[in-house]
Design brief:
The structure is a single chain. By secondary structure, the protein is mainly alpha-helical. It has a domain at about 1-85: 2-Layer Sandwich (Ribosomal Protein S8, Chain: A, domain 1). It contains eight helices and three strands; from the N terminus they run αβαββαααααα. A hairpin with a 7-residue loop joins strand 2 and strand 3. Helix 1 packs across helix 2. The termini are far apart.
Length: about 200
């Protein structure tokens, strides 16, 4: 029937208008957020899937990073981050668990992990020295590579943090292979004990 079609069309137009208005509102909020100097991240109110996708799009166009958090559809919300304050894996994990992010506590945990890693490294260094090649292979190519240039280049090379060489601090799983294996073995033993 034509009146039903007209009603549908009217509803679709209304929905389209609402989306356009919502997008405009989000664009205003996002541009306010970009101009707010002391605000590295902003948490938006919970919103439905379509609204979230519009907000993600607005954030992407504005050159920001955005993530959705929250378990059930009703409470899912978007957080927008300025690029220079893009969240670390730890920060994201905290939000996924529904916790507040505390950089000081995370820094303390990171320091303890680093300390443990340094101690482990020191222990490894005290171990037997691995047998090396009898001569330095670079001697063979000295006429091609020189002796100083490569060292200077190696010293000045800065790793791009977002690519390639990942510093230990950025790895999600900072356990050594031994620690990981011990954990797996302990879980196995626990399972066996439970099965018996």
């Amino acid at each position: 029937p034509p009146e039903q079609a007209a009603r549908m069309k009217k509803l679709q137009e209304q929905e389209k208008r609402q989306k356009v208005e919502f997008r405009k509102r989000m664009e205003q909020e996002v541009s306010q957020f970009i101009q707010a100097t002391g605000e590295p991240r902003r948490r938006f109110q919970p919103m439905n899937k379509i609204e979230r996708s519009i907000l993600h799009d607005v954030a992407e166009v504005a050159g920001l990073t955005s993530f959705s958090f929250g378990d059930d559809e009703d409470s899912r919300y978007v957080m927008v981050f300025k690029k220079e304050f893009a969240p670390s894996d730890e920060e994201l994990e905290a939000y996924r668990r529904g916790e507040e992010w505390d950089p000081a506590r995370a820094e303390e945990r990171r320091r303890l992990r680093e300390l443990a890693a340094q101690q482990e490294e020191a222990e490894l260094e005290r171990g037997p020295a691995p047998p090396g090649p009898p001569n330095d292979y670079k001697d063979k190519y000295r006429h091609l590579i020189g002796s100083e240039a490569a060292k200077a280049a190696a010293r000045t090379m800065e790793a791009n943090k977002a690519y390639g060489c990942v510093p230990v601090a950025n790895k999600r799983d900072t356990r050594s292979i031994e620690e990981a294996m011990n954990e797996i073995r302990a879980k196995k033993r626990q399972r066996q004990a439970e099965d018996e």
